[in-house]
Design a protein that fits this description.
The protein is mostly beta strands. It has a single domain, classed as Roll (Ubiquitin-like (UB roll)), CATH 3.10.20. It is built from 1 helix and 4 strands, in the order ββαββ. A 4-stranded mixed β-sheet has the order 2-1-4-3, with no helix packed on it. Strand 1 and strand 2 (18-23) form a beta hairpin.
């Protein structure tokens, strides 16, 4: 039986979201490692902080938004 693929969207602060096809059941940490990224506080799934062991689902939006400093 063929492995099911799902579509997720990934983006960084200065880039547009990209639609990516990945294997169903992929953990967030594996997704990030495949893109040479590390899990940390700047990583969000659907706007929420999640565990690195989070299992990605169809339609999830993964963002890497570096901490923004400044202001008053």
């Amino acid at each position: 039986m063929a492995e099911k693929t799902i579509a997720v969207r990934f983006g960084r602060l200065t880039e547009q979201l990209q639609v990516l096809k990945i294997a169903g059941g992929t953990l967030l940490v594996k997704f990030l490692k495949n893109r040479h990224l590390e899990f940390g506080p700047s990583i969000r799934v659907n706007g929420e902080e999640v565990s690195e062991e989070y299992t990605l689902h169809e339609g999830d939006i993964i963002t890497d938004i570096d901490n923004v400093s400044g202001g008053r």
